[in-house]
Amino acid sequence: MNTLQKCIDDSILELEENNPLIKDEKQMRMEPIYSPTCDVAVGPFSFREGSLNELYCDLARTNEVAQFITNLQNASLGTGYNEALLDLNQNPRCFIAIEVENAIAHDVKHLLGSVTNCSLLGKIGIVVVFDDYLKYAERLLQYLAFVKRVKKANKELFRNVFVISKSQIDALLQRSQ
User: Fold this and answer.
1) What distance in Å separates the CA atoms of residue 143 and residue 109, rounded to the nearest whole number?
2) Which residues pair with 41 in a beta bridge?
3) CA quadruple 39, 173, 72, 93: dihedral positive or negative?
4) Residues with Cβ < 8 Å from 34, sequence gap 6 or more?
């Protein structure tokens, strides 16, 4: 958290929507219209007109975050992200969008919704799947690879999202501390 705060201009940190800089789902709702939410979001947040895309790209290039992304890429089950793809989501609502899937993960359509939410809401998306349900995530990722291969979907679809097991993200976060 301190790493991000050091890299963000005070004028952005002082905005009401950036307090706190990590939000849970209830704090992400934008009334009165429907707005998708994710389980956890890491700011800064872009709830106003305009975009923080340039700031998000700068954050993703800082040493600590870039190392975290590399480690995430190496541990990820599928999809994923690299420096050349920083331009995938030009106007995300937050820097990192996280969905955590446990028992409901056996519903592959629900998992697809989680991947979609993370892709749309965050510059970087992370879907954490409890280890007991990884086979469902793998089925979804196989399907996504297939539709890209047969050109039913753009090959860049969901490339800003990592799907990772709970044990892998736990180990990754331990290394980051």
Assistant:
1) 11
2) 23, 97
3) positive
4) none
CB 114 within 8 A of CB 106: no
3-class state of residue 18 by DSSP: helix
On whether the CB atoms of residues 93 and 45 are closer than 8 A, the answer is yes
Query: Each residue's pLDDT tens digit in the chain (177 positions)?
Result: 567 778 888 888 888 888 888 887 665 666 676 777 788 999 898 877 778 888 999 898 888 888 888 888 888 887 665 555 666 788 898 999 999 998 776 788 889 999 999 998 999 999 999 999 899 999 999 999 899 899 998 888 888 899 999 999 999 888 766
State the pTM of this model.
0.88
As a whole number of angstroms, the distance between CA 145 and CA 158 comes to 11
Whether 94 and 46 have beta carbons less than 8 Å apart is answered as: yes
Give the Cα separation of 156 and 151 in Å (integer). Answer: 11
